[in-house]
Every structure is written in C-alpha cells, then in structure tokens.
Amino acid sequence: MAKVLAALRNHWKKSTFGACLLGWGGHWLYGKHCDNLLRRAACQEAQAFGNQLIPATVPLKKATVFLNPAACKGKAGNLFEKNAAPILHLSGLDVTVVKTDYEGQAKKLLELMENTDLIIIAGGDGTVQEVITGLLRRADEAAFSKIPIGFIPLGKTCTLSHTLYPESTNQVQHITNATLAILKGETVPLDVLQIKGEKEQPVFAVSGLRWGSYRDAGVKVSKYWYLGPLKTKAAHFFSTFKEWPQKRQAALMYLGPTERPPEEPEEKLSRPPLYVRLYRRLRSYWSSPKEFPQEVAPEDWEELKLSTIELSIATRNRQLDLTRTEDFMDICIEAESISKGEFVHRGSQKMRDPHTCPEGSQCIQASRCILQLPEGTEGSFGIDNEEYEAMPVEVKLLPRKLRFFCDPRMREQMLQAAVQ
C-alpha cells in the first residue's frame, strides 16, 4: 500500500489525469444507464396501450411519421430509432415512417398522402413548417386539417416543444415524454399564419415571421463556433460594423382582432329521422319571414408607415390561452434608435426567445395584415426559422386551425392559469 501511494505521489500528473479520466468515464456510463432506464419505463407505459383489447371489426389506427434524418446535425434518425420508434410500435399503432431526403420534400409528399388517423412530425421547426404547409395546401385541407398532429422534437430548434411539453434538460426524457403524449391523446388547438406573396403559393407558420437585424445576425452565429459561449455576442457585435442604425422601412395595413366563435363539439349529434327534418323545414318556411340579405360592412383597415430595426409577426401559441375570447396575432415594431451595446445585449435574449417584444416597442394586435416593402428591398424573412426572400406579403391568421398532441400536465397548467 505504501508503494502504491509513493508511486501515485511521484507520478502525480499521470495520477491526476487518470483520476479525471476515470471520473468522466464513470459519469458517462451512469448517464447511459439512466437513459436506458428512461427508455425502459417509457416502453412499459407504451406497452400498456398496446395490450388494450379492441373489437375485431375496428381497424388499427394508422400513424404516418414524417422523419427528417438531417435534423440535429444528422443525429435525428438515430435519436428517433432509439427513443421514439420502440414506443410507437409497442403502442399498437400501424406506423408508417416516411424519411425525407431533401429540403421541401415533405410538402410534395403531403400532396400524395392517403387517409391517416395521426400525423407525427419528427424533426425541428423546419420540418414542422414543411409538413403543415404541405397539409394546408391540399385541395381537401378542410378535412385533413382535422387530423391530430404529434410533434417529436429532434431538431436544433424546436419552438413548439416549449408549449406542448414540460421543460427537461435530458434529451432522452424530452423525446420519450413527447412520444407518450401522442398515445395519451390530449390535444390543444394552435393558430396558424398564412403568409402569401404576390405570385408564390402560401406558406404556413405556427410561430411567426421575423424581418430585421436581429434575425440576420442570429443566422450567422454558427459562423463563429470557435468562440464557444461568446459566439452569439460576437455575431451581433460584428454586425454593428455595417451601416448604423440598420433601419427597415415598410408600409403596414392591418385589421384588428376578431371575436372568437364558440368551439364546435368534437362529436356530432346523430341526424334526426326524415319526418322530423321535413317537419322542421316546413315550420321554418311558413313561420319565419323572409330576410333580405344585409350589406356587408366595409373592413376597417388601419395604415401605418414604419421604420424599425426589426419587425416580427407572431402567433399566440407560445403563450397559449385556451379561454381567450378574441383571436389575433402579435405585431411587434421595435424602435430604430438603439445603441450598439444594447443591440449586442438584446441579441442574446432574442436567441432564447426570438419573438419577444422588448420595452419601447410598438405592439399591435391584428387578425390580418399586409406588409408592403419599398422597391429594391433586399434581405430575407425568417418564417419559423426558415429563410425566405423578403417581398410584399399578406399575413392572415387562421385561428385554432390545427390540433397538436400535448402533455396532459401542460394542458392542465394552461387551464389553471386561465382560471387564475
């Protein structure tokens, strides 16, 4: 024992390195063991759904998964196979996995998709944006938009996961929780933005549209990867070397919020017999006076000239309120006068919450808007973190257009917050 201690003391550098390596290896193995326990517990819970008896005449539910293997720097395929696929197969669903090979393929595949009971999106914000755009471009979108949608967060940016699932620092737990939420069946309605240019087909978004200096600087953050935790500040700092202040000028026309109609019941009442329907029709024909069509009141458009460092148009999905009485989207026009230091500081906050509206900004609630840009305007829009050429667009809110599966705990929190 004395010889061992003497050897360790005489070779203290090697001993320190070995101890650190042994400690790191033990921590890594313990993390892998905990991940396996999480997967096993999730599979056991999924198997309880798969063991439920169903009548022989009832077909299995069909689930179509749109998987983007390129998400999360090419790791999404492996993450899906290890964490989500076993849960889906054990649940008793008839699962079909569709892997996308290139950007924009999901939009084309949605045009050819046959009837399915569930749509599951496995990827990040870009995959969500492609799938809902392809879905809502269909000629029969009125029927297909009623299909519930599940989201398995596998991408680098997964904005919807903050609304649908509890926060978790463990990636395996986050993915398994999202997959189990699909089996539990709780859904929440989400708003969608329809963004249409002058010539292009409409694009649909669940988060929103950004146009300005913060978005342009945020796109270049990965370029400074070698600076580690300082890369975000570096990207915004170097962007201030351009012409300052960086103004965006445009004209904005918008309509105010609309009153939310009562939600339709999910289960429709059975149709009454023929003689009852005939009696009701005859009674309404003879008793009620004929009504002349009323003239539709002209829409009250507001017009605004704006000069801003950044403009954002966002849904309320991040602060989801299931009991609100009005439908609207948030338009944030940030002040153009800002110091370079404040720009760098605020840029870091924007990376965490891109659609935050800082103090001193002009906030507008609208159900529809038209954004007119001056001729020769360059730059790009960020639509759900995907890049599109900047052009004049019309943005229309489609309230409660799609239903997404969510964790029951999150739905309960939303309802409790609304009551308080």
Describe this structure in words.
The protein has helices spanning 2-10, 12-50, 71-74, 76-90, 105-112, 125-136, 141-144, 161-164, 171-184, 213-219, 231-239, 274-287, 340-352, 408-419; strands at 62-67, 94-99, 118-123, 149-153, 187-196, 203-205, 208-212, 248-255, 258-259, 302-308, 310-314, 326-327, 329-333, 362-366, 368-372, 380-383, 386-389, 393-405. The chain is an alpha+beta fold. The protein folds into two domains: 22-185, Rossmann fold; 208-261 and 298-400, Tumour Suppressor Smad4 (Sandwich). Helix 4 (76-90) runs parallel beside helix 9 and helix 11 crosses helix 13 (340-352). The longest helix has 39 residues, at 12-50.
Largest sheet: 6 strands, antiparallel
Mean pLDDT: 86
| End-to-end C-alpha gap | 66 Å
**Count of folded domains:** 2
Shape: flat
The name of the CATH superfamily of the largest domain reads Probable inorganic polyphosphate/atp-NAD kinase, domain 1
| Rg over CA atoms | 26 Å
- By helix and strand content, what is the structural category? alpha+beta
Strand content: 15-25%
- Say what the CATH topology of the largest domain is: Rossmann fold
Contiguous runs where pLDDT drops below 50 for at least 5 residues = none
CATH architecture of the largest domain: 3-Layer(aba) Sandwich
Strand order of the largest sheet: 6-5-18-15-8-10
Number of DSSP strand runs = 18
CATH classification class of the largest domain: Alpha Beta
Count of discrete alpha- or pi-helical segments spanning 4 or more residues: 14
Helix residue percentage: 25-40%
Pfam families: AGK_C (PF19712), DAGK_cat (PF00781)
Organism: Lanius ludovicianus
Domain DAGKc: 58-199
EC number: 2.7.1.107, 2.7.1.138, 2.7.1.94
